[in-house]
Amino acid sequence: LQVRLFENDEEKRQSVLSETVRKLEDLAEAGLLEQPIASVSDRITVCDSLEEALVGAGYVQESIVEDLAVKKALFAELDRLTDSHVVLASSTSTIVASLFAENLAGRERCLVVHPANPPHFLRVAEIVPAAFTSASAIAITRDLLQRVDIAPIVLDREIEGFAFNRLQGALLREAYCLVRDGIISPADIDTLVREGLGRRWSLIGPFM
């Protein structure tokens, strides 16, 4: 898809394309990129203003700092600058949409889309709607993720930490406790997850 990107920090804005190419080179070297690097990077346009990036946009994904006040201010701008049918999604991993979008005129098109990290490698993202998010916004987002080969996980309601972090956090807490209590070394924990649980769970989930 054609992507337009804006970043406030000029230094980061100038380096984003070269950083993207480096990630694409890593994927290509590992045999995980089906298209030529140039054909992917050529679809990305870096813009000098938020207004320029939003012209004609069909979907907006915000990926800024985890600061509620900053998100509120940005989503007010996004709501003002985009057409009413455009979905406004946040990449936040901690802040639910009802906290930053509740008072917006177009709040029904706002939700969280929380990608697994690193998002260019882990092909899954959580869709977390607020109570006011429309079914249309959820459907548009789900379809878009599927179109770019990202598995959409739709939560029925907002919860603290969402699902990905809740599952990850449970394993991490137990791992820290096992090391703290002198049961096992950090290196062996990593091996257990990487060579054992990681391999098993890459094929079958806990319910399968």
Structure described in brief:
By secondary structure, the chain is of the alpha/beta class.
Defining key terms:
47% helix, 5-stranded mixed β-sheet, two-stranded parallel ribbon
Account of the protein in words:
The strands form 2 sheets. A 5-stranded mixed β-sheet has the order 3-4-5-6-7, sandwiched between helices. The chain is globular and about 55 Å long. The mean pLDDT is 96. Helix 4 links the parallel strand 3 (59-62) and strand 4 (87-90). By secondary structure, the protein is of the alpha/beta class. Helix content is 47%, strand content 14%.
Number of H- or I-type helical stretches: 8
Cα(first) to Cα(last) distance is 33 Å
Specify Rg, calculated over alpha carbons: 19 Å
Give the neighbour order of strands across the main sheet: 3-4-5-6-7
Number of E strands: 7
Low-confidence stretches: none
Give the biggest sheet: 5 strands, mixed
Instruction: Calculate the mean pLDDT score and round it.
Output: 96
What is the H/E order? EHHEHEHEHEEHEHH
| Beta-strand residue percentage | 5-15%
What is the general shape?
globular
**Portion in helices:** 40-55%
Structural class: alpha/beta
Strands, helices and their partners?
Blueprint: E1 3-5, H1 10-29, H2 37-41, E2 44-46, H3 50-54, E3 59-62, H4 68-81, E4 87-90, H5 97-101, E5 110-115, E6 124-129, H6 135-147, E7 151-154, H7 162-180, H8 186-201
Parallel strand pairs: 1-2, 3-4, 4-5, 6-7
Antiparallel strand pairs: 5-6
